[in-house]
Automatic annotation (TrEMBL):
The record marks 61, 168, 176, 312 as: Interaction with DNA. Mg(2+) binds at residues 9, 105. This is DNA topoisomerase 3. Releases the supercoiling and torsional tension of DNA, which is introduced during the DNA replication and transcription, by transiently cleaving and rejoining one strand of the DNA duplex. Introduces a single-strand break via transesterification at a target site in duplex DNA. The scissile phosphodiester is attacked by the catalytic tyrosine of the enzyme, resulting in the formation of a DNA-(5'-phosphotyrosyl)-enzyme intermediate and the expulsion of a 3'-OH DNA strand. The free DNA strand then undergoes passage around the unbroken strand, thus removing DNA supercoils. It is an enzyme of class 5 (isomerase). The active site is at 310 (o-(5'-phospho-dna)-tyrosine intermediate). The keyword Thylakoid does not apply. NCBIfam families: PRK07726.1, topB. Gene3D superfamilies: 3.40.50.140, Topoisomerase I, domain 2, Topoisomerase I, domain 3, Topoisomerase I, domain 4.
Length: 722
């Protein structure tokens, strides 16, 4: 009897599949069993060929050779992972392998990983598809019991391939054009450029902003605070100081009369479940985790711990077939701090409405929820614990009762001026009990007045107005983006477009990028020194601001990239021909290259140091990297980088701020902005007294290494994105 070859995306997933499929014999790049052979990719094993593959003339970068428009895009094996590709190809060519099951991540990119390997290896036998949303044994067994024919996912692959080819055509051509024209490491892309443009535009708004004085008027009445409101416009502030002073004068010593007391019962429904973007937003607000960091932690919770469902989802709903599993999922998380809340939900019987279970709002994957796997909280790192905590609390909240309260609004008349106060009495805390003592996750809204306790008061009641005053404030510029607010802007770029039809188009697509790619786009902007982080806020660098001045106008617009995503979504549904889309992209790349060449703008490095590159002799640039200050060579072909300072996780013993590490080898020292300084030896001795020496050594290694790159494709792309 022939064997079935199973292709997973990563070795960790392959091991899980092998265990369920009774494969236990380790061999070259695979795990074998009597019926199945499980093998794996390492992320991408195959990628689109570099321009050099299409002719020697592309080995050097010249404006006159642009645009580069290959008739047929070639695939190449990625050098770093070629050994594993060889193992997979050999397995595909085995005479006793009768069919293949694609078990890569169930999404657009996962489909691409598998199909390119299949194409490059020349595999022609029957293909089936495993499509699951969690990595538990139960989900894997059910998935293998319901395998789909591979052809059902052909259009998803065409969509993924079209996206990749369009990125190559536009990204590489515009990047080469900008780099050659301005002799600097400049790059552009269909998603990164509009995202950078939003950050640059926001900085320009802040720079041009002129604060204006305003006044709000408040007073004491019957033991509570009342606020003035304009009778005509309903505004609670005035920009006219004379008007404010006049109102205070008019009400001083006067009686106020209650003209309306309005009581109404209000309900606040639970929040929707998490999709990836919403989870990344909350993790950034609460823990200051970057979008990329959150995604990496999620992958571990999904693959290694099997505690959560597929992370790269854009849906905040579940399908109706998941509803019968909710009780089991609740029982699996009923441990430690969650036990009491879970018991409360189970006691009141789960009532799932269309706000949570809605098949029409789920495409590839449902919302992120816990799996049925029992959780051992002590096995999680602190970062994993934090993200898991967000997911579990949101899951319990979604299944809880609404928050209910009685809101009272009191309006009074004081010598012709209108004042109001608002208060509320909580009737049922409902889902908010889950977040008791958790603090606020929403962005604070300065405009909202604080709710206060109001006495039982009747219409017609009169009392003297006390302590009236006009409070001076200043209008604030728009806030700089944090990763949380930037993710929101990328998800809903329609607000940056005036055209109503285009706004609707934007809102009906996934926005700028997809939930799976947004974190990488933001990281890329940091790594290419177009933006930098100061605290939680994101600032554009001079390089980023200049680039936005140089790139063609429509590449900066969110309209364009959303239209692309819409086209790609239609390709995945089979309603748009991928060849027509790629043909349009070739025309578009030609137009963009022409625009770059015709542009009269200049690029100037304003961060040049007096230190020469040890490899090519050019003066290096001073930049703020993600982990500290760096010196980088401006020459594209050299690419030398040197770390000057690293922002460490070590806290200053005097002021408790994070310290910087400067110097090399034995001369390394810790520096703090408060003036504290400590040599590395002294630091090791001080820390060694408190913790194991191996932990100190591990800490130092961690400071010096960047986060691991997820896939070999990222390495292959790196030279395009500089």
């Amino acid at each position: 009897m022939g064997k079935i070859l199973v292709l997973a995306e990563k070795p960790s997933v392959a091991r899980d599949l092998a265990k369920v499929l009774n494969c236990s014999q380790n061999a070259n790049g695979c795990i074998m069993g009597s019926k199945y052979i499980v093998t794996w990719a390492l992320g991408h094993l195959v990628t689109l060929a570099d321009p050099e593959a299409y002719g020697n003339k592309y080995k050097s970068w010249n404006l006159e050779d642009l645009p580069m428009l290959p008739n047929k895009m070639e695939l190449v094996v990625i050098k770093q992972t070629s050994k594993q590709f060889g193992a997979v190809k050999a397995l595909m060519n085995r005479a006793d392998v009768d069919e293949l099951v694609i078990a890569t991540d169930a999404g657009r990119e996962g489909e691409l990983v598998a199909r390119w390997i299949i194409m490059k290896a020349g595999f022609k036998k029957p293909i089936k598809r495993l499509w699951i949303s969690s990595q538990t044994d139960k989900a894997i067994k059910e998935g293998f019991a319901h395998l789909k024919p591979g052809r059902e996912y052909d259009n998803l692959f065409y969509s993924a391939q079209s996206r990749s080819e369009a990125d190559w055509l536009v990204g590489l051509n515009v990047t080469r054009a900008l780099t050659c024209k301005h002799n600097a490491q400049l790059s552009a892309g269909r998603v990164q450029t509009p995202t950078l443009a939003m950050i640059v535009d926001r900085e320009e708004e802040i720079r041009k902003f002129v604060p204006k004085d305003f006044w709000s008027i408040q007073a004491q009445f019957n033991g509570f605070t009342v606020h003035w409101q304009d009778r005509v416009s309903s505004q609670t502030r005035t920009f006219n100081k004379e008007q404010a002073d006049g109102i205070v004068q008019r009400i001083t010593g006067q009686l106020g009369e209650v003209v309306e007391v309005k009581k109404e019962m209000k309900k606040e429904l639970p929040p929707l479940a998490y999709d990836l973007t919403e989870l990344q937003r909350d993790a950034n607000r609460r823990y200051a985790y970057s979008a990329k960091q959150t995604l990496n932690i999620m992958q571990k919770l999904y693959e290694a711990h099997k505690l959560v469902t597929y992370p790269r989802t854009d849906s905040r709903y579940i399908t109706t077939d998941i509803v019968p599993t909710l009780t089991e999922r609740l029982k699996s998380i009923a441990v430690g701090p969650y036990a009491k809340a879970v018991q409360g939900v189970l006691r009141s019987r789960i009532n799932v409405t269309g706000r949570f279970a809605d098949n029409s709002k789920v495409t590839d994957h449902h919302a992120i929820i816990p799996t049925e796997q029992y959780v051992n909280l002590s096995a999680l790192s602190s970062e994993e614990r934090n993200i898991y905590d967000l997911i579990v609390k949101r899951f319990i909240a979604v299944l809880s009762a609404p928050f209910e309260y009685e809101q009272t609004t009191v309006r009074l008349n004081v010598n012709g001026e209108s004042f109001h106060a608002r208060g509320r009495i909580v009737k049922s805390w409902g889902w908010k009990t889950v977040y008791e003592g958790f603090g606020k996750l929403e962005e604070d809204n300065d405009e909202e007045e604080d709710e206060q306790s109001l006495p039982d008061i009747q219409k017609g009641h009169k009392a003297k107005i006390n302590s009236p005053k006009a409070i001076n404030g200043k209008t604030k510029p728009p806030a700089r983006y944090t990763e949380a607010t930037l993710l929101s802007a990328m998800e809903h770029p329609g607000r940056f477009v005036d055209n109503k039809a285009l706004k609707e188009t934007l809102e009906s697509t996934s926005g700028l990028g997809t939930p799976a790619t947004r974190a990488d786009i933001i990281e890329k902007l940091f790594n290419t020194f177009y933006i930098e982080r100061r605290g939680k806020e994101i600032y554009p660098t001079s390089k980023g601001i200049q680039l936005i001045g140089l790139v063609p106008k429509d590449l900066k617009s969110p309209e364009l990239t959303a239209k692309w995503e819409q086209q790609l979504a239609m390709i995945s549904k089979g309603t748009v021909n991928p060849n027509i889309f790629v043909g349009d992209m070739k025309k578009y790349a030609t137009k963009l290259v022409g625009a770059v060449i015709a542009d009269s703008g200049q690029f100037k490095h304003d961060n040049v140091t007096r230190e020469k590159c040890p490899e090519c002799g050019k003066y290096m640039l001073d930049v703020n990297g993600k982990k500290g200050k760096m010196l980088v060579c401006p020459d594209r072909e050299c690419g030398y980088r040197k770390t000057v300072t690293i922002v460490s996780n070590a806290r200053c013993p005097e002021c408790h701020k994070k310290m910087e590490i400067k110097g090399e080898g034995d001369k390394k020292s810790f520096y703090c902005s408060c003036g504290y300084r400590e040599k590395l030896d002294a630091f090791k001795q001080r820390k060694g007294e408190q913790v194991d020496k191996r932990e100190v050594a591990q800490f130092m290694r961690h400071q010096e290494t960047d986060e691991p790159i997820n896939s070999a494709l990222a390495d292959a792309l790196a030279k395009w994105k500089k």
